[in-house]
Amino acid sequence: MIYLDSAATSHLKPTAVKRAMVNAMETMASPGRGAYGAAMKAADKVYECRELACRLFNFSEPQNVVFTLNATHALNIAIRTLVSRGDKVIISGYEHNSVTRPLNFIGAKTVVAASPLFDTGSVIPAIERNISGAKAVVWNHVSNVFGYIQPIYDIAELCRRHNVPLIVDASQSAGICRLDMAELNAAFVAMPGHKGLLGPQGTGILLCGETPAPLICGGTGSESALQSMPEYLPDRAEAGTHNVVGIAGLCEGIRYVLSHGAENIGEYEARLCRRASIRLKKSPQLRIFASETDNQAGVLSVQHSTMDCEAFCSMLGKRGIAARCGLHCAPLAHSTAGTIERGTVRLSFSPFITQAQADRACGIIESVAGHEN
Predict the structure, then answer these.
(1) What is the pTM for the complete model shown?
(2) Which of 39, 44, 328, 361 shows the smallest number of beta carbons within 10 Å?
(3) Which domains, ranges and CATH numbers included, belong to the chain?
(4) Cα separation of the two ends of the chain
């Protein structure tokens, strides 16, 4: 199998991730729930992961690194902290359902500051036209459908000028793009552990520039006499037993990214993506959604001129290509790009895919596209 679905989850991981998870199962208990060896070892590992995240994201507050189940969990904490029913919230035209559904559930007045695909120059004017009266801006750094890298630092500077808090969805950028919390000065940055950070499913991180409101209440191993959640982080946002096994694996995923460099990893994936797009554009049956400039990560969407994307993806699967088809939980992105009626087949690369594998995958895609059977 040639795995080209890393935008969904990093199935291919450093070997140290698995080893760390097995070791945690064998040697660690619950942090903050005892002073014996296994509990203390767990506490040390959890704190080590917070510190590594701070190193990766240039963040100075390990206690403000909150562990979550995934990016969706993190985004719900952030959004519910800043947004109430009727509040005006500005979002991009490329947001995932993990942003749009919580806003809809709350009853926010969501305004889409839409701009054309891969056109970074139109982003800031689109926000400026709509930002008056906004309670928050929620923006993804990289589109999960098209790999479109948005100008998040310019957006952050605009939000500071207008004194509007920014929530960054870093689901597709954490681990592959420069993500500097000190420069962003965002209210919150949300990310999964199981994508670019190369950790296991069931892990996520919320970097908190502000104190979040608890989304879930319960035991924290601290201030147990209180019947309200502690006021301080991370306890305020981490009710219940930690996923120590997952955090141990995430710790090694982050360590791998630190040792290789997030931007180096991102550039490698983008090179594979550009190489594939140039080749696949030569196939008359395929429509390729590729940037003409340097603002696309290692995610490439394609459409067949006549074949349904589900059928196309199924045929690729039978030939050993793991890709994803449909709307990718991001109907807004497809509406913005004009692909909502048919969806796309998405190819997403990872640091563990070789150029030879990527080339072989392109050959299979060309063959399937040309024969349609």
Answers:
(1) 0.97
(2) 44
(3) 2-9+262-371 (3.90.1150.10), 15-260 (3.40.640.10)
(4) 20
